[in-house]
């Protein structure tokens, strides 16, 4: 007469069955949504000074790393262009200077070189010093410094000036390479700090609770290394390249000193070709 509506033992009610089937899906969707918070685009789009994931400190760290990256790229490109241009032309410039029969023509050739070419500027400074000393023969200048000392001082100043220009930007690359990882580490520590605060406040250590702060920490670590590694590699490369160029500076300066102080270049194995007398001061410089 009355229908038995009780659930048989061992069977699952339809509502409970649906909830159990949906539970794994909900957990999967929650983890997938939490993992999206670990992306770089989410970090930038959700910047807010009040945002616990990416606040003012995180923004300062991120902007600092961006500035480091821009400065590093700028000096890498500039030094690469400059060193490549100098090394590709230095042998031909020195060879043309020494092979020119007339010293006046050799100085004129150096005056025609670009303003960024260092070997021509060293030669012009040396020629100018020699001419200046020659014009003041019999004066107190000649009595205080002989011709060799006066030319040597001019060459030292020219080599020091061109060496300083050649090493421009290396301090920036060294600073970026040495401090970049630590700036990224600061962002990492700050992100983990936020993750711990969120866990302690909510009592929830699930992926959705810590994904944002941990994602920020990982991104800052990777960004710091991404900025520092190219700077360190470029610094080591340019130090080695500059060492070669500086050695050629010294070699060229010694030859110039011998020529303008004694009238002939001291060469290993063979005497230098005859030249005219020491030239007058160059008319103009570029």
What would you say this structure looks like, in words?
- The chain is an all-alpha fold and 286 residues long.
- It is built from nine helices and no strands.
- The longest helix has 56 residues, at 207-262.
- It is rod-shaped and about 90 Å long.
How does the SSE layout of this entry go?
Elements lengths: L13 H23 L3 H6 L10 H44 L3 H9 L6 H18 L4 H5 L2 H20 L3 H33 L4 H56 L24
Defining key terms:
286 residues; mainly alpha; 9 helices; 0% strand; disordered C terminus
- Reading the helices and strands in chain order gives HHHHHHHHH
The total beta strand count reads 0
**Percent strand:** under 5%
Structural class: mainly alpha
Cα radius of gyration in angstroms: 35 Å
* Mean pLDDT across all amino acids: 76
**C-alpha termini separation:** 116 Å
Query: Uncertain segments of ≥5 residues (pLDDT<50)?
Result: 18-28, 269-274, 276-286
Q: Which overall shape is indicated by the principal axes computed on the Cα atoms?
A: rod-shaped
Counted by DSSP, the helix tally is 9
**Oligomeric composition of the shown chains:** single chain
**Which bin fits the share of residues in helices?**
over 70%
Largest sheet: none
